[in-house]
Write the structure tokens for this entry.
Amino acid sequence: MSVILKTEKLRVEYASRELSSGIKVALNGLDLEVRAGEVFGFLGPNGAGKTTTMNVLLGFVHATSGEARLFGVDVREPIARQRIGYLPELTYYYKFLTAEELLRFYARIFGIAREEADRRIDALLKLVELEHARSRSIKTYSKGMQQRVGLAQALINNPDLLILDEPTSGLDPLGRMKVREIIQRLKSEGKTVFFSSHELGEAETVCDRVAIISQGELKAQGKVSDLVAQYQCDLERLFLKLIGYQPQGAS
Amino acid sequence: MNNVMAISGIVVKELYRRKDFYVLFVLTALITLLLGSVSFFNDAKIVRYLKEVCLLLIWISSLVIAIGTAARQIPAERESRTIFPLLAKPVTRGQFIMGKFLGCWLACGVALAVFYLFFGVVSESRGGRNASSAELSSAAATVGTEAANQVDDHDHAGDGIEHHDEHAVLGHRSVVMNYVQALWLHWMMLGVVTAMVLLGSVVLSAPSVSVTISFIGIVGILLLGEHLNKVALRQPQPLQAILYTGYFLIPHLEWFDIRDRVIYDQPPIPFADGGLATLYAIAYTGLFLFLTWFVFRRKALTL
Ligand SMILES: Nc1ncnc2c1ncn2[C@@H]1O[C@H](COP(=O)(O)OP(=O)(O)O)[C@@H](O)[C@H]1O
Ligand SMILES: [Mg+2]
């Protein structure tokens, strides 16, 4: 199976005023491998380095050392981003545009022809259930609606790989359910989904494989069932164990 | 280029959906019209006075629009995080900068055209020169080459221009030419200003700081730039050398200010000079855009 997303010994340092060393190591030698057609859960507690990893993959932050590739192309090349869709963690879209205008703008960036863009915009607005609000400016949208616009823009180029940063955080149970449905639907269309989360239940239900990171380091990577068998406990226990949490009262 | 145009389209859209421009235009128009309705000077003087005030207001408004728009662009994209979904697409940082620049500059151009049209109508309707406001606007619409203007004049030969004597036709043409040149040079200057402010906004990421510093810097150049060499001569040595170097390095925005020619109906500037000024503006705009890209190129985009 072909590898679509790969990082090798990825290291990212941020300048830091608080630390005496002056640098904060956000990622330390991260090796990841995501294969075509799978749903990959990127799990870790807050501050583990999930967003940082995605920032490197999208070229927002340059790695201090190590390598990152998408479709075999170095992430520093803009062309690496032609076939991906990205949903940022918390984002606001141009408030003065309507959902339709926003999607048309992004379609233009991808060089999608007018009629094709119209067709996709209709389909996407239907998918994320925003047809009724398509010609309202985004500043009138609720948080959940904004998240759905985000999902629609991530899909505008019919990407082969989706990178979703905590797509369900901040949504109500129904909203989460819908996002999960969309992820499953994308998988059934043969797309690869790489998403970060700290919702273990969710990861367990939708992911083919997961990686667990903590403090910028990879703790485990593999099929959920394999990991569970290997460590002989459920994903939640495993997660807590790997991030170094000691249950109170135990041992 | 497609990406650059798409990004600039968003900048223009934002500008006309915000109210800043309309407010500035209405203010300028109101103040000018108010002054025009009070006649406490004799006629010849008041026209000049009106023109002077109106042009000054146009200059101030244009700088406010240019600086306000350009300084906000990149910091606002980062602050509202709209930059993330955009740069996650196959857009280079260079295209992003160019799109922002082009959008701001085109928007300034549209705003300027509206302001100058208003200025032309007001000053001519107050018994300025030979041009009627209708002729003026038709000429202003062809802000193209001299040749285009001549063709235009021939087309309209039937409706009125033939009645003027030779001198008056020339006079009319040079009045229009003055407006067109003033508008053109003003717009070129705003290109330099926009690029400079964009550079400031990637160096100093806080929007309010970058607006303030840009404004002080640009107004400083406009007011003091041409005197800097003379000021330098009066300073003790290390400072003198610094100020002198500064005099040669700063873009001399004041050279683009030909308001006096419009106010006092002086002959238009020669085309060669206008061309040189345009090249000068392009060189500085290019330099500032290059520096902006250079700083922004490898900047880590995080919050
Ligand atoms: N711009 C930055 N400057 C300094 N430290 C940062 C910056 N961005 C993130 N960090 C630090 O890097 C670590 C990883 O952050 P992040 O990747 O956002 O974690 P996650 O997305 O997994 O919650 C955190 O400790 C965070 O404080
Ligand atoms: Mg995060």
